[in-house]
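Dear colleague,

As promised, here are the two records you asked about, laid out in our usual form so they can be pasted straight into your sheet.

NAME FIELD: protein one
SEQUENCE, THEN STRUCTURE:
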Amino acid sequence: MLTEGQRSPFEFLGTRREFLSRSFNGFGAMALGAVMADELSAASDLGPANPLTPRLGNLTRKAKHCIFIFMQGGVSQMDSFEYKPRLNELHGKPITSDVNVRGELQGRLSHPHSCVGSSFSFRQQGESGRWLSELFPHLAGEVDDLAFIHGIETDNQNHGPSTYQVTTGSQFPGSPSVGSWVQYGLGTLNQDMPGYVVIQDSRGSPVNGAAVWANGYLPAAYQGTLLREKGTPILNLARPHSLTDEEQRREFDAIRRLNERHLAPRTDASELEARISAYELAFRMQTTAPELVDLSEEPEAIRKLYGLDNGRTAGFGRQCVLARRLVECGVRYTMLVHGVQIGGDSWDHHGNVRGRMTKSCGEVDQPVAALLHDLRQRGLLEETLVVWASEMGRTPFVNSSKLGKDPGREHNSRALCMWMAGGDVKGGATAGESDEYGLRSVEGKEIHISDVHATILNLLGLEDTKLTYRHAGRLRKLTFTGSTGVGKALVKQSADKLLRTSMELGGNAPFVVFDDADVDAAVDGAILAKMRNGGEACTAANRFHVANAVREEFTEKFVKRMSEFTLGKGLDESATLGPLINAKQVNTVTELVSDAVSRGATVAIGGVAPGGPGHFYPATVLTDVPADARILKEEVFGPVAPIAGFDTEEEGIAAANDTEYGLAAYVYTQSLDRALRVAEGVQSGMVGVNRGVISDAAAPFGGIKESGFGREGGSEGIEEYLDTKYVALTK
């Protein structure tokens, strides 16, 4: 993910992951080098063999620890953190007639259902004016430190797969948990404790049990360690009563010497190295772990703050106190689990949402608020990222035509709400948005859980694209989306092992308007093809070849539509066009426009960057662009539309093909025969006929020529990962 120094987080827009990161990073980050210098120096004697050796991330971030608070079962967002007054208006009524309900949810809502309004009142809290349910009176006092993410999507609405996905990134078992990745990337700051600790609900385990904090295909050293809040903190750790400290130390030393002698002649023995380190860690933990869970020395004020004196809050309060102590001990990642697999102690409220939300929230509100307050007063919140999560949201309806006495809510994988605090998180920030019912994300503002994971890693100093681990033997396939230059380099590197590749590379999409086209429809399509994401898309229309017979009409109407775009920051509600990705891209667009003008093109609108803070460039149209202009040959990646004319169908096809790229193309004509001829004649992997958006999920996405090879999506995309085997059998 990209970082931008001291810029405002909403001053520019990039990918959704970058947006999330920037939204929560505030106005910069403190360098970690000086802060961690002593820690890293002190750990230098551990050597590279120790998988938990502290490491610096590749991004400068304040947060060195993370507390991941997981609510098992699916927290109802419209009864907690999302104020949806429209639901109360529809209480007891269906919403199937709403035009915004689409896709798989439309299918579900075709069955009898009834909206369930929230039973709880909402008030705006703090200086941020954040709406919170009455169920969180304590958290309301901390609300200005929270940044919310709304409308998060997962890929499954069942507890098992969804729990996997929110904690590991995959809905299937076998992948490392986020905590494992954090420990793999950063190590731990306390060599007497595991870097990744889990404290589950004392009433039982979550769905999938220990797989939720598993290391997956990462080495075993990176799995979460379950810490029991009572009794023996870590199972199988205590030494026999008959063995003294000195005797056990001599035993460990002897075993270590034998292991090191065995290791010396071997060049690849990472598993043995990890085993040696694990023995040493276990020895050191025998003293540290029991002291950690002993809360008897905590002051009475702290015990009351966390609600340890109240049977309702004592359980999770104790978990939160331990989480703070783990941060103080240098533990890198702590996962707290509230709720169990099924039953009254879960957040899975299919019935009696009022009573069960009151119970669940009453158990966690005070402890969570206390944790934030306690971390802040100790100066630890700035270096600790706190995340609130659940595996899914809930629906605004119940699956019944009648509400019944105590209605509940169903599973919803399209509207998870999470919040973060601490570190570089900017309190009061918001990312994403759900619709007025809390049913799903607003179109165009979708956020996938993988983007949230990338943001968590970013806020801890880890760039997710650079956090890799090779496993399962030989690589099977390399897939890359990016520039043609980088793609060529990767193909060369893949040649040594004949690694299969698929490349989705640069684009220079032509938008061809013939003389029989519906000009108004062509203008509508041109706006979509050009201005989606401000022109920063690989499939964006790059150059407009318009038949001279309709060129004047098309140009006039197109310029008018482009003039309606308002340049501005993402927080400005009047803005309809955001900034480019960085200063380099602004310079590139400026150079291409200047080159075209110097060769005879005319600027019909825009054409000059406004200057000042931010990487802004206005919606621009160039007319009478000559054939030798660079802008007709090179990818623009910005809101600039160069228009050139042609006379015959053959000239239009030739102009479209006059490029080294061949990713996408757009054609407007009312003749089916012409559409088929041109679609076949245009050298492009994808052709849109009378439409400005062609990125269908079922389509075989990809290009030809220097736009790459291979396909993503559709059956063709699956075939990229299959090997054909011929078996000849004779009886």
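NAME FIELD: protein two
SEQUENCE, THEN STRUCTURE:
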Amino acid sequence: MLHLAQIGVCEIMKDYFQRMGRSLMLPVAVLPAAAILTGIGNWLPATWFISGVLKLAGGSILDILALLFAVGLALGMSNKKDGAVALAAVVGYALTDYVLRPENIATLFGQKITAVNAAFGTPTHNNVLFGIVSGLVAAALFDKFGQTKLPQALSFFSGKRLVPILTALAMLIFSIVMIVIWPFVYATLVAFATTIANLGWIGAGLYGFFNRLLIPTGLHHALNSVFWFKVAGINDIGNFWDSHGVLGITGRYQAGFFPIMMFGLPAGAYAIYRNALPEQKKRIGSLMLAAGVASFFTGVTEPLEFSFMFVAWPLYLIHAALTGLSLAVAAFFHWTSGFGFSAGLVDYVLAFKMPLANKPYMLLLQGVVFAILYYVIFNFAIQKFNLMTPGRDPKENDVPESTVPSRPSTEDKYLRSARVIWQALGGDNAKDNLTYLYNCTTRLRYKMTDTALADINALKYAPGVMGVNVLDQHQIHIVIGPDVQFVADNIQNIYDGNLSPMLATPLKSSEITTTRTTTPANHTTVESLFAVADGQLLHLEHVKDDTFASKVMGDGFAIEPINGNVLSPIDGEITMIAPTQHAIGIKTERGTDVLVHMGIDTVAMNGAPFDLKIAVGDHVKHGDLLADMNIEAIHQADKMASIIVICLELPETATVKIDDELDFDGHGGNYVGQIMY
């Protein structure tokens, strides 16, 4: 029984690592382009402008490798591919990266930055281990807590909004642990490297093996620092390029990488391609070709290595061993060369004529031998042990995992609400009728080709629905309450075809709502108000002007605009334009006067920032363009560009109800509230 349990655990772990490998395909596919750009930039003369641009362009992507891995793993490892899980991964990685920066460690411990342990330098910058951990943590927390419902007072943070917070807390704990243990890990590795440096060509081989083996942890930087720089006095790169060393010795910790990166890994990529399933060959071929070219040309191997590192980890161990063998062979025969960026063709050509380059042409012959070794061994291992290299996993296909239907095991109340709402929105015709699906913190905010096609009465009585508001011919709001996300997610899945729109069992009488209305009690008429611009919704009391904030002129709302397009907030007739053009009056069909006031204290600007598009007597619909407002000019005059909408001289029985500020989606012309008479 124990043996069977162990097999079960092994299968679970195997599947988990294969999922990791598949998840990394998305960021890995980006890297060859970055590598080639960087390689071309390094090949061109350094004095050329384009050289600097290309190196910056390629380096910018390579420099966020850890972040790309965090996002890729988060999306790939979570059961539901949601942008919230990617955001959580970014938050988690950014937190760890920031906490472990040398300058911040210095601040925490009250040290000078020069006194900070070397472990918190290069080994923590762009560390793929931290990116991998962040992605895996975010995915796990999203699957566990992405549907969690918090108490009413905290309902805004329910569901997917909770995940970035939890990820940040988890990665904070991880960062604290790293502060404690990372220096010891780093010191141990440096001591180990210093020891093997005294073993001659055998030490070079051991270094090559552990250099590759430590890639997933980011600790290879610590190992490299001992052999490449002045940490232990070796300074292999610096001495080679300064021509200060011993011919046949200096460069031994670099030369053996050329046969691997220029020949071995591309041959391994070809073996992976040859063993891909027929239906996968085209996709895998393009990926392996790009990654192989990047490895040969620039020496950037991450696109290739991470493509099989997790899905076929025994193959990665073979790769590490072959790398060690290559460095040992080159060091044994005293074939030496060096690189400034990495061991690709660019650096091989640049280093060929250096004084300490000893028989570098032999590295090409060695490369041919290692190309054969890589292809033969990779091909044998893949077939013999059925390794799931890219293109061999039957679970892989060209359809993103996000399109795979996810079906809940039971029909909970949120799914039942979603199905009833869907039928009321049109049933079989709902998908064609819905043009935009969005939810705020309390309501479904949908745009339709025609709201008349919806069964409003059925919506009012749908389980979980607290109210329905038909704004116009194309917009409808369905009030659910703080749990709106869970209903919205199910409707989205129905819309996408991932869930059946049919109820599992008929509604019970206890589920049917009997007290819903489309307008609040004691009100018979409603006029909807719409945002006058793109930007942030403000309640009047939050406007930085006492006159407006006190509501002495009337109730309404404001928008802090992000552009100069000023739109009509309501249907009506233009009845007034201020001589200074900063204010516009609109009379609704019911006779309500609505004032649109552009900016605060802008009357003194005598109309300069305003280009009006209407005239007195014009009839406008909500969303029609009233004016172009020069926000920059207003700000330069040290004034605020807030656009205030005031409902003037309302009867005592009328009230203005404005959405919560957090409910607004930021788009001008969208619903923000209503006047209720």
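A couple of things worth noting about protein two: The domain at 526-676 is CATH 2.70.70.10 (Glucose Permease (Domain IIA)). The two ends are 74 Å apart (CA to CA).

Best,
R.
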